[in-house]
Automatic annotation (TrEMBL):
It is an enzyme of class 5 (isomerase). Its EC number is 5.1.3.1. GO terms for molecular function: D-ribulose-phosphate 3-epimerase activity. This is Ribulose-phosphate 3-epimerase.
Length: 215
């Protein structure tokens, strides 16, 4: 069963609580939270205080995608705020293994993220250690961008490596996912689909989530 992780970056922030309750009752599997620092990516968004505020609203796992130049500095804060999964960009981590261990020490599930132009080879040594691999299908920083089809090759490689080594990591795709691009992602091996505009841009969130899941 494919999991759907609506990205609250495209939610109405003035009604964030209601928006999260809405996707929860509409059948979302995770709440995807994009934390951006204005340095690693050219945008500023959500910090641990917002994660803490969201935590009591839903029992869904909070899937926190860190787009920060120095993720180590904030992992404890996001963990204490209630994150269930914390994913860090391989491009931002000088000592990736150490960063992944730090997330584990806080009892949080771990994820590693690849930008569209990052070769899968860059994460192979860490795949044994992570619960999730997040393949970006747009350049990170903004919602509502167009899907980059070349990432499908990365997804296929991640799936093949997982099967060959009998690993259990989830393969999550993030950026420009809609019912059309979702089909290709799932065929390539994606198990979790992040969708911002394709869920929050629609008035009927149940229908939006279902059309992604059934693509
Ligand atoms: O991490 C990011 C963007 O950097 C994403 O999670 C976006 O929020 C996805 O938005 P859509 O492309 O689905 O509108
Ligand atoms: Fe994201």
């Amino acid at each position: 069963m494919i999991k759907i992780a609506p990205s609250i970056l495209s939610a109405d922030f003035a009604r964030l609580g209601e928006e999260i309750r809405d996707i929860d009752s509409a059948g979302a599997d995770y709440v995807h939270i994009d934390a951006m620092d204005g340095h690693f990516v050219p945008n500023l968004t959500i910090g641990p205080m917002i994660v803490e505020a969201i935590r009591p609203i839903t029992k869904l796992p909070l899937d926190v995608h860190l787009m920060l130049s120095n993720p180590d500095q904030y992992i404890a804060d996001f963990a204490k705020a209630g994150a269930d999964i914390i994913s860090v960009h391989v491009e931002a981590c000088t000592h990736l293994h150490r960063t992944i261990q730090l997330i584990k020490e806080h009892g949080v599930r771990t994820g590693v993220v690849l930008n569209p132009a990052t070769p899968v080879q860059h994460v192979l040594p860490i795949l044994q250690e992570v619960d999730l691999v997040l393949q970006m299908s747009v350049n990170p920083g903004f919602g509502g961008q167009q899907f980059i089809p070349s990432v499908l090759n990365n997804i296929k490689e991640l799936k093949a490596y997982k099967e060959k080594n009998q690993y259990t990591y989830e393969i999550e795709v993030d950026g420009g996912v809609n019912p059309e691009t979702a089909k290709a992602c799932v065929e390539a091996g994606a198990t979790v689909l992040v969708a911002g505009s394709a869920v929050f841009g629609k008035s009927d969130r149940s229908e939006a989530i279902e059309s992604l899941r059934s693509r």
